[in-house]
Amino acid sequence: MARTVFAGGKVFDGTGAALADADVVVEGGSILDVGQGLDGDERVDLAGKALLPGMFDCHTHVMFEGIDILKSLTTPFSMRFYTAIHSLRRTLACGITTIRDAGGADLGVKQAVADGLIEGPRMQISIVMISQTGGHGDEWMPCGAVVPVFGGPYPGSPSAIVDGPEEMRRKVRELIRDGADVIKVATTGGVLSPRDDPRHAHFRDDELEVLVGEAAAAGIWVMAHAQGTPGVKAAIRAGIRSIDHGVYLDDEAISMMLDRGTYYVPTLVAPAGVLRAVEQGVQLPENIVQKARETIEAHRDSFKRAVAAGVKVAMGTDSAVTPHGENLRELALMAEGGMEPSDVLVATTSRAAELMGLREQLGTIEPGKRADLVVVDGDPFDVATLGERIDAVYQDGRLVSGSAPGRG
Q1: Nearest CA among 225, 321, 247 for reference residue 278
Q2: How many CA atoms does the CB half-sphere of 19 hold within 13 Å?
């Protein structure tokens, strides 16, 4: 079995350690050795470049493409399976080798990637987001019709509207049966839904306790779409593993996250992405646009205070609210919010792997780990331009995007 040595560049190993001169030897899809003066059967010359662990996006929607409601309603149902092929490739090309899909992708999409039918990041899937009646996932419209803007139920992707503990229990079991790796629930309203308020809490404690208990019985975790403070706190109390979005965090919520070890997946790029889409001509109801405007500053303030307090942050974007392939735009916002560039990269590698239960396999460059590697031209700590400087992406030691620099 051939050994490939990535040599002559800098290595960021994902642990937060300083950038170092090092070579990395890969064999059979795994990292064999890390050090200086290593050799192999083949050499990839990294002069002037840096090597990072494969990166993560812990909140994405690869089955959707943008937030144009009219376009979604006039697109054939099966079309999104084909557009997902391109979304997955674009995500992989920007150095994201693992994703947690927060709704949309089903077991067939995950299996198609795993079996090599299509190229894409390895996936954990939630299938759909559990929502209460009138909640963020309820597609009832003020006209009185239920309009499946992002696609209605079908075999393997059930309706996710539930009310009460027993309905919650049944729905979690159904999603686990259908292949969910993680359960997603909306504990607050959201920006893109027509009739709810991001600040209001959804589901009561008894419903959330059943949800977490059923997920735990199957050995999986729960992620929460949680924007308003009461819904964030309810999710933390119930033992939900990650708060996604976390727009309105008060000091008590931050303290609770620290006490419980709850992860924060901020998706800072998403609200601005809504406004950017409107500027580019996407027609959205004014109340949705107003909600997006109202959240941006509160969101960034919450993030700054959570970072300063030491809350565990893992990178996520909410793509397709912003275009797939532009995922690394989130990194600049994280740095602007007070994170050191090295900490931003940790949040995008080892911390994200930890959140997803993959730290034993991925997230760092060290012997025994799977050889997910990203070659970057220049300084990886210049996170504002990192997405423009991805030269090559490897999964399990195999080149999946870009071209191997100086291969010989």
Answers
A1: 321
A2: 17
CA distance 208 to 235: 7
**What are 53's strand-pairing partners?**
373
User: pTM (2 decimals)?
Assistant: 0.96
Give the class (CATH, top level) of 55-204+261-327. alpha beta
pLDDT, tens digit only, all 408 positions of the chain: 799 999 999 999 999 999 999 999 999 999 999 999 999 999 999 999 999 999 999 999 999 998 888 888 889 999 999 999 999 999 999 999 999 999 999 999 999 999 999 999 999 999 999 999 999 988 888 888 777 777 789 999 999 999 999 999 999 999 999 999 999 999 999 988 877 889 999 999 999 999 999 999 999 999 999 999 999 999 999 999 999 999 999 999 999 999 999 999 999 999 999 989 889 988 888 888 888 899 999 999 999 999 999 999 999 999 999 999 999 999 999 999 999 999 999 999 999 999 999 999 999 999 999 999 999 999 999 999 999 999 999 999 999 999 878 765
User: What are the phi and psi torsion angles at 50 (to 5°)?
Assistant: -130, 150
97 secondary structure, DSSP code: E
CATH of region 3-54+361-402, choose from 3.40.33.10, 3.20.20.20, 3.30.450.20, 2.30.40.10 = 2.30.40.10
Neighbouring residues of 353: CB distance < 8 A, sequence distance ≥ 6? 56, 98, 359, 361, 362, 363, 364
* Domain positions in the chain: 3-54+361-402, 55-204+261-327
Give the residue among 352, 344, 332, 406 at the shortest CA–CA distance from 375: 406
